[in-house]
Amino acid sequence: MATTPLPNARTEPDGSAVIRVLSYNIRSMRDDTAALARVISACEPDLVLVQEAPRFFRWRKKLARLAAASGQVILSGGATASGPALLCSLRATIERTEDVLLPLTPGLHRRGFATAVVRFGGARVGVLSCHLSLQKDERYEQGGMLLDRLAALDVPYAIAGGDLNERPNGRTFRRLAASLQDCWVAAPWGAEYTSTPTDPHQRIDAIFATKGIEVLGCGVPRAVPGVTEADLRAATDHLPVLAALRIPVA
């Protein structure tokens, strides 16, 4: 895996954009929120794909506090998407957002997608945060819904990421990777495994990109300046995934 620094975010002379995208399961901010904010801030993301955002009492206030502490603003999601959320830097120009609730299977947790279309310079990109089911058949159906939802954004380029609750050899993970670029496979960087922070042994969190997006690097940001092992362990029960992507002009 590459250990050189990821490219910094920038807008190219032709209007294309290099952006940093972070996907992170934050466990409803039940752990060390100061450590969580430090990790997010140190990664300098343009987009943060959150899973397990606060969903209950004063959830908007809690998510807004995290966004402010990490240099972000709320883009969409939270309780209205049953957990997934999107944060973004002020560099993003927001075109539209939509929170999507998925069909409820009796006895299982309600799932949803947080989605948006944003611009960075001349680059226009759709984005989706997800947290797929623990139940394998429901998870597989949700994988198909994810692909359909990306197509419904009606943009030439899109990014999806989140907690898949499945390893790369699982059929839902393979379904997504057959249609989208698995950013870790395209340009491995940093560390691979996302679960658990104290014993990393499996990759169940991922960032995907549609064809045409150039993946410059993707992985767990263990070597990013300002990201410490202590903070990664204290922040939540997952490790984050950070990707640098070049989005063409659209």
What does this structure look like?
By secondary structure, this protein is of the alpha+beta class. The chain has one domain (14-247): 4-Layer Sandwich (Deoxyribonuclease I, Chain A), CATH 3.60.10.10. 24% of the residues lie in helices and 31% in strands. It is built from six helices and 13 strands. The chain is globular. The mean pLDDT is 97. It comes from Streptomyces montanus. InterPro entries: Endo/exonu/phosph_ase_sf (IPR036691), Endo/exonuclease/phosphatase (IPR005135), TDP2-like (IPR051547). This is Endonuclease. Its cofactor is Mg(2+); Mn(2+). Residues 22-238 form the Endonuclease/exonuclease/phosphatase domain.
Tags for this entry?
single chain; alpha+beta; Deoxyribonuclease I, Chain A; 7-stranded mixed beta sheet; 6-stranded mixed beta sheet; 13 strands
Radius of gyration (CA) equals 16 Å
Residue stretches low in confidence (pLDDT < 50, at least 5 long) are: none
Number of domains: 1
Name the structural class. Answer: alpha+beta
The overall average pLDDT, rounded, is 97
CATH hierarchy, class: Alpha Beta
Approximate shape: globular
CATH fold call:
Deoxyribonuclease I, Chain A
CATH architecture: 4-Layer Sandwich
| CATH H level, superfamily name | Endonuclease/exonuclease/phosphatase
Strand content: 25-35%
Number of H- or I-type helical stretches: 6
Largest sheet: 7 strands, mixed
Helical amount among residues, as a percent range? 10-25%
End-to-end C-alpha gap:
31 Å
Overall number of strands: 13
Pattern of helices and strands: EEHEHEEEEEHEHEHEEHE
Keywords: DNA damage, DNA repair, Endonuclease, Hydrolase, Magnesium, Metal-binding, Nuclease
Protein name: Endonuclease
Pfam family, one: Exo_endo_phos
Organism: Streptomyces montanus
